[in-house]
Amino acid sequence: MDWERMAAGALGGAVVGWLWHRLVGCRTGTCPIAANPYVSALYGAFLGVLLASGR
Fold first, then answer.
1. Would you say 13 and 51 are in contact if contact means Cβ atoms under 8 Å apart?
2. What angle do CA 4, 22, 43 make, to 5 degrees?
3. Residues 6 or more apart whose Cβ sits within 8 Å of residue 11
4. Contact by Cβ (8 Å): 41, 11
5. pLDDT tens series, the chain, 55 aa
6. What CA–CA distance (Å, rounded) separates 30 from 49?
7. Predicted TM-score (pTM) of this structure
């Protein structure tokens, strides 16, 4: 696996996760992923790595 592709997937996913928090978010604050920008970015980074790895 190419580490540059994995890093790009993680960075892109983190940006998408943070944007999801900012644009969609959670109105009540009880959503475990969308309520916290750091958790949203980490979750997005994880999904970005999975997509970049092709699994």
1. yes
2. 45
3. 45, 48
4. no
5. 588 999 999 999 999 999 999 898 888 878 888 888 899 999 999 999 999 988 6
6. 26
7. 0.84
